[in-house]
Structures are given as C-alpha cells and as structure tokens.
Amino acid sequence: MSRFIYLLFAAAFLFCSCTSDDNNPGVGENIIVPVTYSFERNGVSTVDFSGQTTRLLMGEELGDALKDPARTLGELRAMYGHQAGNADFGNADLNASDKNLKSKTAASADYYTANAAEQAEVRADFENWIEAQVTEVYPNWNNLATPGQAGQLADGTSTRYVDARGLEMDQLVLKGMLGAVMTDQALNNYLSEQVLDAGSNRADQEAGVPEAGKSYATMEHKWDEAYGYVYGLNADPANPNQDLGADEFLNKYVGRVESDPDFSGIAEDLFQAFKLGRAALVGGDYELRDEQAELIREKISEIIGIRAVYYLIAAKTELEKPEPSFGTVFHDLSEAYGFIYSLQFTRKPDAAAPYFSRAEVGMFLDDLMDDGPNGLWDVEPLTLEELAGSIASRFEFTVSQAGS
Amino acid sequence: MKKSILLLLVLAATLYACSSGSTDPDGAGNGPGGNEVRFDRSAMLANWADNIILPSYNAFLSSHANLSAAMQTFRANPTLENLVGLRESWRASYKSWQRVDLFEIGPAEEVGLRLQVNTYPADVALIESHVAGGSYDLDLPSNRDSKGFPALDYLLNGLGADDAEILQKFMDEPAYAAYAADLIDDIGARVSGVVSVWNNGYRDSFVAADGATATASVDRYVNDFIFYYERFLRAGKLGIPLGVFTGTPAPETLESYYLEGLANELFLEGLDAVRDFFNGRHFGSTTQGESLASYLRALNTVKGGEALDARINAQFNAARTLVSGLGSFQSEILMNNPPIDMLQAYDEVQAAVPLLKVDMVSAMSISIDFVDADGD
Fold first, then answer.
1. Which of B10, B246, B337 sits opposite A11 (nearest CB)?
2. pTM score of the predicted model
3. Where are the domains of chain A?
4. Contact A382, A320 (CB under 8 A)
5. What ranges in B98-252 are assigned the alpha helix state H?
6. What interface predicted TM-score (ipTM) does this complex get?
7. Which chain A residues are within 8 Å of B243, Cβ to Cβ?
8. Which of A4, A251, B115, B221 has its CA 20 to 30 A from that of A127?
9. Best residue in A5, A8, A14, A52 to probe B by mutation, most B CBs within 10 Å?
10. Residue-wise burial string across A159-185, b where 16 or more C-beta atoms lie within 10 A, e elsewhere
11. pLDDT 10s digits, B141-170
C-alpha cells in the first residue's frame, strides 16, 4: 500500500478515536447493538442465511439416511454431493437447491484455497465413511457385533450399529461434518478478513450498496452466513438460545457445553460476540468486528475440544466398570472420533491455524484405534486418558472440567 | 492534547504526500525507505505492447496461416499423412494461442475473444447438429462451445477411435472437413480483427494511458492478468477438471480432452507466457524490458526477507516443476482417487495468487476489481 493511502487510513483512524473518546471505551457512538440478532436498512431486514439453513437440513437428512439400511451407496453419495433438481431428499426445497455439502467440505478461503490436496483427502474421508456404512455395516445390520465383526450392540435402550472396529460410521460423518463444513465455513471462511473485506466490500458496506436483487451488502451477508451455520435452524434465529439443540451440528453442542456448569455462559458469550461483531461491521468499526470474530473462533473451537475430551472421559469411565457396556463405550468413542477429527478445522485465536493439524489429528485417531487388532474392542482406559490430556493441554479448560 | 498534535502532523504529512504524488505523472508509488521512486509506467506499457503483445499476436497469426494451409491440403487430399499434418498444425497453433490468451484487454476484451476461440469443453451434440444441418451462425454466443480450438480437438482427435477411423469419417462425410475449415476461418477472422485494432490506434492509446487510476492501462491490465491466472490458468486448466470446487473430478472438462497429454503442454505454455510477461521478456527472445518484475524492484518490495519479484518467479518455477513431473492430466485424474500429485501441483500454482493479488498490487497501489462469488 502506498504511503498516501496508509496516511489516509491513519488520519481516518485518528478522527474516529477522537470522536469516540467521550463515550464508552470499545463501542463507538455509531455502533448500535440490538437486543436480538436483527439488523435492518430502510426498514427491511438485511439478515439472510438461507444457504446455511439448507445445508444444515441436508446434513440432517443425510444423518437419518445413514441409519436406514435400505439405502444404496448411490443414494447416499447423491445426498452428499447433491445436484440441483435431483430427487435426493424427502424435502422438495432441498431437491431444488443448487447447494450441497460436499462442495463446502474443507473449502474455507483461509485453510483450503492453497491446499487442494488436503481438501481432497478430507472429502475422501467422508466418501469412505459413507461407503463403509453401506458395504460393511448395512450387510451386518441384523448381526450381533463381535471383535472384528460389524453389527449391532446395545447402548442402554438404544441400539448402535458399528463396523468391525467398533466405530459408528454415521457418527463419523455427522461429527466430522460439524467440523469440516459448519466450523470450517464459519470460522475460516465467512469470518475471514480476506472474505469480509474482499474487493469493494468495505466501500459497499459503508455506502449501503446492496447485492443485485438482495437487501444486504456483501460484507454483512458474509457475517450472517457464519451466523447461519450455528443458528440456521433455531425457531427464532434472532433469539437462538431459547432452543439450542435445533440441529445435530454446532447448535446442539453449544447447548450441551452450556449445560455443563463449568462452562455456563458460553452460549450467551458466543451469541453476544456474533451480535456485537455484526453491529460493529455495520458501524464501520472493523477492529471491533475482528475482535468478535476472534472470540467466536475461540468459543467454537473450545466447544469442539471440550466435547472430544468429554466423550473420551465418558468412555473411559464406562470401560473401567466391572462389566462395561461396549455399545455405550463405542458410541461415546464414535462421537469422540468425530470431534477429534474436527479439531483440524478449529482456529487458534490470532493465528490462521487450527489447534491441532491434520497430521496431529491423524496421530490421535491412530492412537485411539491401535491398542489391539480390533480397534475400539481393544482400547485401554489409559489411552483414552492420555488422549484427553493431550487435547485439553492446548485449550484453556482442564480434563476434569470437560469430562464431567 | 498529544493526540491532536499527532493528528495535525498526520494531516500535514497527508497533504505533503498528496502534493508529492501530483508531481509524479507516471503514477509510480513510493519506496518503503521514504525515497521517491521513479518508475516509468509508460516504458513498461510500450514494452508490453511492442515487444510482447503484438509479436505474440503476429506469431499466432502465422501459426494460424499454417493451420489454414494444412486444412486446405487435407481437404484437397484427405490422406492419413495429411490428417497427421493437419493435427500437428492445429496443435502448434493451439500452443501459440496460449501466448495470447492472457491479453484479453482492449479489442480482445470487447469481442470476448477468449470465449470465441477457446470455450471448453466443446458441446459435441451441438457440433454434430451443425455438421448434419449444414447451417449455423458462428457469431451467436450460444455457438461458442461448438467452435474454436476445442471443437477442432473433437473433430481432429475425437471422431473415431484411431486415425484410420477418423480419416474414414472425414471421407464419408465431407461436411466434417467443411465445418472444420469454417472454424479455422472463424478463429483467423476474429484474431486478425483484434490485431488490426491494435495496429490502428489502440496500441498508442494503450501506451498513452500511463496514469495510476482504475482506468489507466497498467491498473486495468494487471487486473486482467491476475484474473487470467486465477480463473483460466489455475481454475480452468487444472482446478475444474480436478474437482477442486465441487469435490467431484471432471476430466471431461480438460482443455484438449480428445488428445491425451496436450492439456499438460497447453498449461505449461500458458504458465510460461505468464512468467515471461511478468518479467517483460521480449517474445521469442531472452531480452527483458520494463515489466511488473522491474517495477517491483524499483519499489524495492520485499516479502519475507526476499525480493517479491524473485519470490514470484520462484513460485512460478516451483509450480512448473510439479506440473512437469505429472503424467497426462487425464491419467492423473482417472487413475488416482483423489489425484493427490496433481492437486499438489495445483496448490503450487495457487500459491502465486496471493503474491500477485495481494502483495504485488498493494506495492503498486492497484485495486483488484473482481471478487470470488461462492454462490450462497
């Protein structure tokens, strides 16, 4: 940037800091933070995240379909990589949509634009899990699972369907998607400075120039798309903490972590950060906007880390009982597997990097599966404890906080 | 109190920067050390026009003349040997096209030359219907995927399983050769039209618009250049066939799909054209003139402790090395799931994008006028 432009920014910045000196520190006078997530221009709402709602619904249907052994591999693949107009879903709106989950898997601007090789590996993981469900688990739907043999196991009143190593493929797909689609898109794409500030976004936002045929300017819409990946299925998305658990992805686990007294308040903090960041964006305070983006990144990453540790410790507790229920242990560890997998899509504060790289995640998952020849059937409590400790060590929470 | 003094200083400095900018008609930026940097944008534009763009167009027209001649020879005497000769001329001209494809500015931009000459994949059903019907309007936008080099690819390489079959098709149905000849004429007429505008005034107005505004030649063409690199070289030739954006590989979208292996050569030729343009290298020579690279050197732009122009060249070379090591793009995509080697090569190609689109343009104070749309 030339010195001239730099100085203009500096001068503009100083004007801003002068005018806001007399007010609350942090929030300038032209920043209006509403009570709910409602933003309007000229009386018309500028909030729209229908694309995210669509993908959340596609994920829900795919999750249900994975538990139906009458489905074919072709049908499940078509749901994952849906093409507009194909009757892949029960919901006609989804069938008509030109959106799909696959193209948004490991597809963030910050992490994958220059990393197509790793992106393809992540997508291949999902394809492989879906395929294993059809070729390995479905044929053994009505067999009892034993070490090295896919089939079903009781988990309390529920029945779990696992592969030969004890893993539930549907859990891997759902929890993996929570990371590879929802978290990666929200934290590393839509909250990314390079996406928010692309092209003429700042000028358009400040002048209130809407996208063609839309009520919103591009920058505010990007922010709302991040929001939609967390709250896109809530009954009142402007006031989402009333019914957390509205989807099987991030929304559900914001609620779960909130209900642990060690983390109570996290749901409100997350919602306030989204709201304040959006208000700051509208008010032209990009520094405040980006601070909120960092906060959101930290909270959502933490939720993934907490749930990974939670399920590892839950499984360990069950495994240490005199007569452990393998169905319970395997279900917890299938959840844990998905959350550990999703750590590679998290985002450390003030860094363009996840808490754990794909390579580190791969080592964790290998450790989880390699205590013996039959995967989870052979896993030792000590392995689970060590994994939980390694994961918690990079976060601000402890194993005992997360594990209760 | 302190703050207002500082503010005054900043404002004064801003005014100073404004006035010093206005004594700088070439629109060069200032160096980071605070020294006034003089870079002659006009000399760079002249080097681009006279030593790179026009010679590249002229070389293309000469390769095209060979293609036309080979077509005539084949029509007069449709033998296996003449089919092979025609194909070789087509291949040489297609490679030569890669040396001008990046110059979609001015008259080329006005007529949409790139899409007129090289829209792929070709629509085979549409081509067949034109051949069978014998009547078609090659000026229609809807016919762009039934003509140009990709349609010739289908006709010369895809009409049969081997050369004998292809030759037989041409002998049985003379309409195929007539259509191919029309396509070659269409390419020639369009490119000649563009060159003629360059030679009759556009060159001078291009070089004369040597300021530093969004409508000046350097600002405009740098945008077009980066757009070409990102959308056509990176995405069109590699990313889309690899399925980078959809997750589903689409080898049928490869450039020159019907002649296995040519897509690799065309990509490398395009990359070389980009690199040579960046360095201001005269067409067909090792001489270098004023260029984006010399501009960056004049601005003393450094990235990570290394001169930015050297860094960009190193990135082009790294990309070239990885792509050169690949098997035919067809085989890479069809035999590997996922095609990791080719994806890694793609990543090296992509790695130059931020260097050009962020670091280079900010050093030159050029705004990027296009953004990615992600469709949500």
1. B10
2. 0.81
3. 3-402
4. no
5. 107-111, 113-117, 124-133, 148-157, 163-172, 174-197, 203-208, 217-227, 240-242
6. 0.72
7. 120
8. A251
9. A14
10. ebbbbbbbbbbbbbbbbbbbbbbbbbb
11. 999 999 999 999 999 999 999 999 999 999
